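Why do we care about 3D structure at all? Because function follows from shape, and shape follows, mostly, from sequence. That is the central idea of this module. The next example makes it concrete: a single protein chain, its amino acid sequence, and then its structure expressed as tokens.
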Amino acid sequence: MGNNNNNNQILPLLTEADRQELEGVVQVLANVTKLPVEVVKPHFDALLKQLMKSKQDQPFYKTATALEWITAFREWAQSHRRDTPLLSEYALSRAGIYDDDENEDI
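And the structure:
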């Protein structure tokens, strides 16, 4: 039962497909090592926990998938106000940007 507690901390981070795939990996390891699943699983869970923790310790830009980048960008974009007034044509013109002194009387 202690193994399930360790596993429960990791599994909420994973999709159902990932969980099924990991169960398959445990079965393959049990087959290769000729050890029962009950013996292999605690070792595999410890390794998985260590790998997940090392990923969490790294910065987002080193570990993010393309989908995670897209999701983060969309969340960032949606966090901005949408009722901000647009700049005028003058504000976007050269004179508006640089406020040319030659147009002003000193």
